[in-house]
From TrEMBL:
Its EC number is 3.2.2.5. Residues 157-301 form the Prokaryotic STING domain. GO terms for molecular function: NAD+ nucleosidase activity; NADP+ nucleosidase activity; nucleotide binding. It comes from Confluentibacter flavum. The lineage of its organism: Bacteria, Pseudomonadati, Bacteroidota, Flavobacteriia, Flavobacteriales. It holds the Pfam family prok_STING. Keywords: Antiviral defense, Hydrolase, Nucleotide-binding. InterPro entries: CAP12/PCTIR_TIR_dom, Prok_STING. This is CD-NTase-associated protein 12. Residues 6-117 form the CD-NTase-associated protein 12/Pycsar effector protein TIR domain. It is an enzyme of class 3 (hydrolase).
Length: 321
């Protein structure tokens, strides 16, 4: 992976030692935050949990055998109710494929989870406990590595926005320009300079922060880098003025550049989710923003490389604007 996923680790107070062992095995693979560090002062546990789900990519809930219950006249060991509740909460928010429920062996499995493959670990006093933890975490790592090849629709809209931007804008524009290339259409740039497309490149620039309006970022980039403008008549939709890197428009190379205006919607979504009522960004807001920018870029790259029109022509960069 080209990034470290953020993982929430939850357990009972009695299971804290197990949490520490899991975090140790995930070191260098993920940025982990134990439940003991995740709660903010002045909020209830419920508000803390529901307000933080979107800040994490994955969650691991550890159910150690801390309680004894009598169920249908049978006495059994079970995990704490709050750990099971948090498993359900994160599963509903992140999706069940991004949440792991580690159970201590011989612990009662909730009936609703019957049939689901769950990772088990022995009692923490077992002499081979560390080996079993490593095996369990290695399986979770494999699952995460495989999961990172897909893109989910989550609380925030980065995946959906990237898909819409690609399908409705990028593909159709590239298709039109390739047709113009075949037809040897004449284009005009600054100074009434005429040329025909011999080679086409398209760079999507994604700002490394969403703190400013995208229209302002585009204007600033145009002025600072001396971009020109080019009108493209696209298929079945309205015309659009493109920014062109004139310095690269040599020998018939048309190098288009674009900053997605749709990122304004992503910025607003982040603000609404975090209930922002202040100037500046908290650490959690920064993490959330970085994750959504990263997901927007990765989704675009996946779509670009899987499309016959855009592969080899369009590339994506995260830049400081």
């Amino acid at each position: 992976m080209d990034f470290l996923p953020n993982i929430f680790i939850g357990s009972s107070r009695e299971g804290k030692k197990v949490t520490e062992k899991v975090i140790e095995q995930l070191k260098g693979f993920a940025d982990c935050r134990a439940w003991t560090e995740a709660f903010e002062i002045g909020k209830s546990n419920f508000d803390n949990l529901t307000g933080q789900i979107a800040f994490y990519d994955y969650a691991i809930l550890i159910a150690t055998a801390d309680d004894v219950i009598t169920s249908r006249k049978k006495q059994q060991k079970t995990g704490r109710d709050n750990v099971l509740f948090e498993f359900g909460l994160f599963s509903g928010g992140l999706g069940h494929s991004k949440v792991f429920y580690i159970l201590e062996k011989n612990t009662k499995i909730p009936s609703d989870l019957t049939g689901i493959t769950l990772p088990f670990v022995p009692n923490r006093y077992d002499p081979n406990f560390d080996i079993h933890i490593k095996t369990c975490v290695d399986e979770i790592k494999k699952h995460i590595l495989n999961k990172e090849k897909t893109f989910d629709l989550g609380f925030l809209p980065s995946t959906a926005l990237a898909y819409g931007y690609f399908s409705n804008f990028i593909v159709r524009t590239v298709e039109r320009l390739l047709e113009d290339k075949v037809k040897k259409k004449n284009f005009s740039l600054a100074g009434n300079r005429k040329f025909q497309i011999q080679d086409l490149k398209f760079t999507i620039l994604i700002p490394n922060d969403l703190s400013d309006d995208m229209f302002s970022k585009v204007k600033a980039k145009r002025l600072k880098d001396g971009w020109g403008k080019l009108n493209v008549v696209r298929k079945e939709i309205r015309d659009y003025d493109f920014s062109v890197d004139i310095s690269k428009a040599v020998n018939g190379e048309l190098h288009l550049v674009d900053i997605p205006f749709t990122l304004n919607a992503l910025n607003k979504a982040v603000e609404l989710y975090s209930k922002k009522q202040h100037i500046g960004k908290t650490v959690k807001e920064q993490i959330l923003e970085e994750r959504e920018i990263r997901n927007f870029k990765r989704t675009l790259e996946y779509l670009i490389n899987g499309n016959a029109f855009t592969k080899g022509i369009v590339n994506v960069e995260i830049v400081d604007i």
